[in-house]
């Protein structure tokens, strides 16, 4: 039996035949790769996860990331190291106990110098990362940087990492200049291995100069790529990079997959820091816009963000007063606040348990706290939109929604008073008037005006929802609030091209606010109490607004089949159209019920609309389509 000979690393990586010549094979000699031609000592033996030369090392296994531009494998799957960042350790941890012993006069513990171990990557892994960066250079990064800059000039930015995006983009302009993939990989790994320690009082400008411009790492590259994906999402036509819808979607997905690769490499180093947390959050937002709010990818990535927040201990030092400050502590508080709000929104939307609770953090909000959040706000028509304003408004509304969801009936009047307070302290410039189109400001500001009003209406919607009275018939108060939400949602659909993301996407507003409002109106129209719908002043206008949503959906203006949440919106609008058609024909609530139907109405609570179903997702519209009043329209 012939002896098996191992191929050299370049031949093995390129998957070509090797003549096994030593010290340099023929192919490497012809290709002038003599310096890279090397043979593994144990080519046919499985690598050990723990080396004998480093007995104290810890082997870390990471999940392989999604393949990106090439078919190369993912980041390092197992690397020996001394754990570089233990993160947050609470009062019950062993570290806190020994610190207490030492502070109480106990024997001083021997000083242990934990040096970051040198992570020696295998040659194959070095080649993989170098190839990834070489392929990344084919994306015309200079053109991508110009697109991101133009996107920023339009007043749009990342919700939290916005102040870091411009420095990251600037760093990428020079980083890829005259450097090979191998040189770039070495530089990025050296920067990413270092413990990124910074005090919360450090200014954002100093943080950017030190960790974005001066010493870029994998997280810096990842933030830039997330910015590219978001900029492509909001720019339908950019001839320097793409000119068709397919080209736009391809570049958007490619940039996000590359950002995923950068994030997975950061995670494989097992060294948490603030820059990585910002990348995780913005990566989650970008995935929700590509995969949809019902996708498991978005759900899992939000969970990763929450895990990192707890691991870094940011939940234990949330400071509402710092939300508007230009410091690293402000960024940390903003990240916690937005993650807390996102967890509430997604959990309600999907009817899943919360993963973040205010009781597990220092997040507390009294009336004085709410007032202090908005007193320092200075609005100027010429200034760019401040994304921290949307963060403050969102977290204030989420606190009120949390009280509604706990069914605190005795606090109804207090919650309504808090809603009035919020509207009073919101800068007058951002208060919604009669029509959204009359607002004079940037696209991002107009989007925030709509989001602020919808958020406050949603608080009232949860307060007046039938879960309070345990009945499936909407109350007059709920119909009024639903009509206001639906009216604003329809106007958003018509003004889509004049809006820019101020913290939440266009489709999220339709799905999270428009569908619940339309569902309540439809429920009133098909219920066995017709006078409720006929006598409500909000219903006639709501019927017109639902017609607008249906028309935009059928025309492909509202959402395209390749966009997220299409299935949810398509089924919901089909049911709304059925209700409108039968209403126009006078077929709803015009026939007397038979005794059997009356008995059915007494026993059937249809559809269930309680605290465990606070939003109108796909199951609601499926059940509503099977209502006896619409049964003849089912095909």
Automatic annotation (TrEMBL):
MF annotations from Gene Ontology: DNA-binding transcription factor activity, RNA polymerase II-specific; zinc ion binding
Segments forming domain Zn(2)-C6 fungal-type: 7-39
Primary location recorded for the protein, binned into one broad class: nucleus
Keywords: Nucleus
Location of the protein in the cell: Nucleus
A Pfam cross-reference name: Zn_clus
Cellular-component GO terms for this entry: nucleus
Protein name: Zn(2)-C6 fungal-type domain-containing protein
Species the sequence originates in: Cercospora zeae-maydis SCOH1-5
Source taxonomy: Eukaryota, Fungi, Dikarya, Ascomycota, Pezizomycotina
């Amino acid at each position: 039996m012939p002896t098996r000979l191992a191929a050299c690393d370049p031949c093995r990586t390129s998957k070509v035949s090797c003549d096994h010549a030593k010290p340099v094979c023929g192919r490497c000699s012809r290709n002038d790769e003599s310096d890279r031609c090397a043979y593994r000592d144990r080519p046919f033996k499985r690598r050990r996860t723990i080396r004998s030369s480093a007995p104290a090392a810890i082997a870390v296994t990471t999940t392989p990331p999604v393949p990106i531009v090439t078919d190369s494998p993912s980041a390092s799957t197992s690397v020996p190291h001394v754990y570089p960042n233990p993160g947050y350790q609470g009062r019950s941890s062993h570290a806190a106990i020994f610190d207490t012993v030492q502070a109480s006069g106990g024997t001083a513990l021997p000083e242990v110098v934990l040096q970051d171990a040198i992570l020696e990557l295998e040659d194959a892994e070095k080649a993989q990362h170098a190839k990834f960066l070489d392929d990344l250079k084919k994306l015309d990064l200079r053109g991508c940087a110009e697109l991101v800059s133009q996107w920023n000039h339009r007043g749009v930015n990342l919700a939290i990492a916005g102040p870091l995006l411009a420095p990251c983009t600037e760093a990428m302009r020079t980083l890829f200049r005259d450097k090979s993939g191998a040189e770039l990989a070495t530089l990025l790994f050296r920067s990413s291995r270092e413990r990124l320690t910074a005090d919360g009082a450090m200014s954002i400008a100093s943080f950017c100069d030190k960790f974005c411009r001066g010493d870029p790492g994998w997280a810096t590259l990842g933030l830039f790529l997330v910015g590219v994906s978001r900029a492509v999402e909001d720019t339908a036509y950019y001839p320097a990079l793409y000119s068709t819808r397919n080209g736009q979607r391809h570049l958007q997905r490619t940039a996000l997959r590359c950002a995923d690769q950068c994030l997975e490499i950061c995670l494989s180093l097992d060294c948490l820091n603030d820059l990585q947390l910002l990348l995780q959050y913005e990566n989650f937002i970008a995935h929700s816009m590509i995969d949809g709010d019902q996708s498991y990818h978005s759900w899992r990535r939000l969970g990763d963000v929450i895990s990192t927040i707890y691991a870094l201990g940011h939940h234990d030092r949330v400071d509402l007063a710092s939300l508007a400050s230009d410091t690293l502590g402000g960024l940390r508080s903003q990240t916690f606040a937005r993650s807390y709000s996102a967890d509430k929104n997604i959990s309600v939307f999907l009817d899943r348990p919360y993963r973040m609770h205010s009781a597990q953090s220092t997040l507390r909000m009294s009336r004085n706290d709410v007032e202090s959040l908005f007193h320092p706000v200075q609005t100027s028509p010429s200034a760019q939109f401040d994304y921290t304003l949307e963060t403050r408004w969102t977290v204030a509304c989420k606190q009120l929604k949390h009280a509604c969801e706990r069914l605190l009936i005795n606090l109804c009047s207090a919650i309504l008073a808090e809603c009035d307070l919020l509207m009073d302290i919101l800068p007058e410039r951002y208060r919604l008037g009669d029509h959204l189109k009359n607002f004079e400001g940037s696209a991002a500001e107009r989007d925030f005006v709509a989001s602020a009003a919808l958020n406050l209406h949603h608080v009232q919607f949860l307060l007046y929802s039938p879960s309070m009275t345990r009945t499936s018939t909407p109350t007059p108060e709920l119909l009024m609030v639903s009509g206001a939400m639906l009216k604003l949602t329809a106007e958003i659909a018509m003004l889509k091209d004049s809006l820019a993301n101020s913290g939440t996407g266009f489709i999220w507003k339709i799905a999270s606010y428009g569908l619940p409002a339309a569902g309540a109106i439809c429920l009133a129209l098909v219920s066995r109490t017709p006078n409720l719908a006929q006598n409500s002043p909000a219903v006639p206008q709501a019927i017109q607004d639902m017609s607008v949503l249906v028309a935009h959906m059928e025309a492909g203006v509202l959402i395209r089949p390749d966009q997220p949440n299409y299935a949810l919106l398509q089924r919901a609008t089909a049911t709304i159209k059925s209700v409108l058609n039968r209403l126009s024909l006078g077929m709803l609530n015009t026939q007397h019920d038979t005794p059997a139907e009356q008995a059915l109405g007494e026993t059937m609570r249809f559809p269930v609309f309680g605290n465990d179903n606070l939003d109108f997702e796909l199951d609601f519209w499926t059940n509503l389509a099977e209502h006896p009043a619409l049964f003849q329209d089912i095909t």
